[in-house]
Write a structure and sequence with these properties.
about 10% helix; 2 domains; Protein Transport Mog1p, Chain A; mainly beta; 8-stranded antiparallel barrel
Length: about 300
């Protein structure tokens, strides 16, 4: 999942638009492999527009389904195809709740429910409430869809100053009720991202001043999630998961879960890419100044 960011109402002035308007009587196919059918019987409030676009203030490389009221962004929807391990909605939603709860201690579930889509997918939606700041309550919605063979996950982020969370949940359900698995021939190929070359499992071996061996391993997946593990003398001492992205030859990390738990200051980290070849990655950590060489697993 991407770094959670609070974006002010000035977002409209920061946009360099690169989008295609989704006609309310048309359809949208996203690279994850889902098609949304916005036909004439699509139930959606007047005055709201749906676009599919890059929003540079959020991420310069990813296209979002975006819902607008005039030039004010209401919320975004990011859809990913999930690994086979996530066919069960409970597994996906447990991870969704854990990640949000780790980032925002006050996060709590407002409710959940299931529904069927026109494309015969079983869908589950969960709404979580949290407060990025004391006077700025927000809701985040997770949606899981499956036909029993494939699974898809979506994260909905709100950007209104005072969102009507009940109304947004109703709108999100209306959008996903139109979903079906797209004909593979119609699925657009996602634009190649700077991150694509880094996807995979990497490992680094080093030695502490006392002579103990250290092994660090990280898995970076196509959905921009990562899992990091550190072992000393073969004993696992740290596990962390979260989101990552690449910009200006730097890798940015946002930990959503860790054991032992990281301090708030350490939940975000940054590495400079010193060199990068297909099977070797040399990183210099911004906080420690230490350089590590990682080898890619076959």
């Amino acid at each position: 999942m991407r770094l959670y960011k609070t974006i002010t109402h000035l977002i409209a002035t920061l946009l360099v638009l690169n989008f295609s308007i989704v006609c309310m009587a048309g359809s949208l196919v996203v690279p994850a492999g889902l098609e949304f059918d916005f036909s004439e019987d699509f139930d959606f409030p007047e005055g709201l527009d749906i676009t599919y676009q890059v929003i540079p203030a959020i991420d310069k490389t990813v296209k979002y389904i975006a819902i607008w009221n005039g030039d004010e962004l209401q919320y975004t929807i990011l859809v990913n195809k999930l690994p086979k391990d996530y066919l069960d909605p409970k597994v996906y939603m447990q991870g969704f709740y854990r990640d949000i709860k780790t980032a925002y201690n006050d996060a709590k579930s407002k409710g959940s429910g299931g529904f069927n889509t026109k494309g015969k997918l079983k869908a589950t939606a969960v709404e979580l409430l949290y407060s990025p700041t004391p006077d700025n309550p927000k809701a985040m919605i997770g949606v899981h869809l499956t036909d029993g063979k494939e699974a898809y996950g979506a994260m909905i982020n709100e950007y209104q100053k005072s969102p009507d969370t009940d109304a947004i949940l109703k709108e999100v359900v209306s959008i996903f009720r139109t979903a079906k698995i797209a004909d593979p021939a119609t699925v657009p190929q996602a634009d190649r991202r700077e991150e694509d070359g880094y996807i995979g499992t990497w490992a680094s071996d080093s030695t502490l001043p006392n002579g103990q061996s250290v092994n660090a391993k990280m898995n970076m997946d196509q959905y921009l999630n990562f899992k990091a593990e550190v072992s000393v003398e073969g004993k696992l001492i740290f596990v962390g998961t979260g989101n990552w992205y690449v910009s200006d030859k730097k890798i940015f990390w946002a930990y959503m879960y860790s054991n032992p738990q990281l301090s708030d200051d350490d939940k975000k980290d940054e590495d400079e890419v010193i060199s990068f070849e297909r099977n070797e990655l040399v990183l210099k950590n911004k906080k420690t100044g230490k350089t590590n060489t990682f080898k890619k697993f076959p």
